[in-house]
Specification:
The protein is α+β, with helices and mostly antiparallel strands. The strands form six sheets. The chain has a four-stranded mixed sheet. Helix 6 links the parallel strand 9 and strand 10. Bound molecules: uridine-diphosphate-N-acetylglucosamine. The site of uridine-diphosphate-N-acetylglucosamine has 20 residues, from helix 1, helix 5 and helix 6.
């Protein structure tokens, strides 16, 4: 069993280079199946979620190789769309459900066990189903497997009742080869949705408007392989920005798109942290005393990302004054707060709001990663805390952070991955 052991208190100084975006890589790798011939995907993060998506693609017949670091080649000429993707694969990777949209659009059928992923409340897929049905598919969810099929898909108007990243992506994927025009309204606008649209268009699709609330897709009959480079990971970058701020450091976060980080940068500035934007970098300077308390509310892009909520709340535990964090996307994303309390944080949760009273510092404790971003929050807490913090369940952190130990060590953190006996 592996744990992270962190001796906190070091200020972070230096440069961290950000990897490709997990939440762009997963739908893009799934969508490479449209090509029916090799696709070369660059800037792929080497994380366990990506390895799981590659494993699922191999399971349905694709040839997936990594000829060099950060490069994945998917050859999908021998896909068998009628195989059910089983629960032991999908429960580890929520993004496995993107294969529903891809296989339905390309082959007219798909069968995927209901997806798992991080638990932060009920995670329905009703909007995905609504989109498939609007395009003419029939959907059956008996026996915890989602079966979709169609004779032919026809472009249609799809209004999403909630702004959903996953449903927007699945609707786009399903519409790519549907006959005629599909209009998705109330679409999510996250950077990875734009990245997926660019990738689809590089393969010959006709997707317009990604990044706005209305996405228009004209179905095409033929698609082809391409070479494509994935955008940098907004949430990985945000996590290290917050880690730099929380440790009183001075860190350049490199290989980023600063525009994608604006909501995080703005909140750091509210806390009195200096953020200097470069062309492809942001520098975080947080010297001279505790940052100030502030108010944070999560919302879909371009709002403050829910995937940064646990990390930012961890910074607020040591800010000067009273902060509030409102979680407006998920109904149960405060579970990790119990772990922060073990480290001396003062937090009261009231419904969708966490009230945080800043303390001088946190103290070390053994804690667990409850999910991917909650795990990242524990790492930040460990970097702040006096003493030796050990974090368990780190396979959840490995799902989304490439070389986290190496990246943090290079900027002065004292963190190691330690193997313990099971008992
Ligand atoms: C994606 C991200 C996840 C992030 C989330 C919000 C991936 C692999 N995961 O998750 O890290 O936390 O976006 O930015 O990209 N909803 C419905 N019906 C649906 C679908 C969603 O009601 O059919 C609701 C959800 O309960 C939630 C909200 O919509 O309240 C947002 O969910 P969604 O954007 O779909 O999240 P995911 O795509 O699952």
């Amino acid at each position: 069993m592996e744990r992270f052991v962190i001796r906190g208190g070091n200020k972070l100084n230096g440069k961290i280079t950000i990897s490709g975006a997990k939440n762009a890589a997963l739908p893009i790798i799934a969508a490479s199946v449209f090509a029916g011939e090799p696709c070369r995907i660059e800037n792929v993060p080497e994380i366990s979620d990506v390895r799981m998506m590659a494993k699922i693609l191999r399971f349905i017949g694709a040839e997936v190789t990594m000829p060099e670091p950060g490069v994945m080649v998917v050859d999908s000429k021998n896909i068998q769309p009628d195989i059910t993707i089983p629960d032991e694969m999908t429960r580890k990777l929520r993004a496995s459900y993107y294969l529903l949209g891809v296989l339905l659009s390309k082959y007219g059928c798909a069968s995927v066990a209901l997806p798992g992923g991080c638990y932060f409340g009920v995670r329905p897929i009703d909007q995905h189903i609504k989109a498939f049905e609007a395009l003419g598919a029939s959907v059956n969810t008996d026996n915890a497997v989602v079966d979709v099929k169609c004779d032919e898909l026809y472009g249609s108007s799809i209004y999403l009742d909630v702004v959903s990243v996953g449903a927007t992506i699945n609707a786009m994927l399903a519409a790519v080869k549907a006959k005629g025009l599909t209009v998705i309204e109330n679409a999510a606008r996250e950077p990875h949705i734009v990245d997926l649209a660019n990738f689809l268009n590089s393969m010959g699709a006709d997707v317009r408007g990604a990044g706005t609330e209305v996405i228009k897709i004209r179905g095409v009959s033929e698609m082809h392989g391409c070479t494509y480079s994935i955008i940098p990971d907004q949430i990985e970058a945000g996590t290290y920005m917050v880690a730099a701020a929380a440790t009183g450091g001075d860190v350049v976060i490199d290989n980023v798109i600063p525009k994608h980080l604006e909501s995080i940068s703005n909140k750091l500035e509210d806390c009195g942290v200096t953020v200097i934007e470069g062309d492809e970098s942001v520098r975080i300077i947080s010297e001279g005393g505790r940052p100030r308390a502030c108010r944070v509310k999560t919302s879909p892009h371009p709002g403050f990302p829910t995937d940064m909520q646990p990390q930012f709340a961890t910074l607020l535990t040591i800010c000067d004054g009273n902060s509030t964090v409102v979680e407006d996307v998920w109904d149960n994303r405060f579970k990790y707060i119990d772990q922060l309390r073990r480290m001396g944080a003062s937090i009261i949760v009231n419904g969708d709001t966490a009230l945080i009273t800043g303390v001088e510092s946190l103290h070390a404790a053994p804690v667990e990663a409850d999910d991917l971003r909650a795990g990242a929050a524990m790492v930040i807490a460990g970097l702040i805390a006096k003493g030796e913090t050990s974090i368990g369940n780190i396979k959840l952190i490995d799902r989304g952070y490439e070389n986290i130990v190496e990246k943090l060590t290079a900027v002065g953190a004292d963190i190691s991955r330690v193997t313990f006996d099971e008992d």
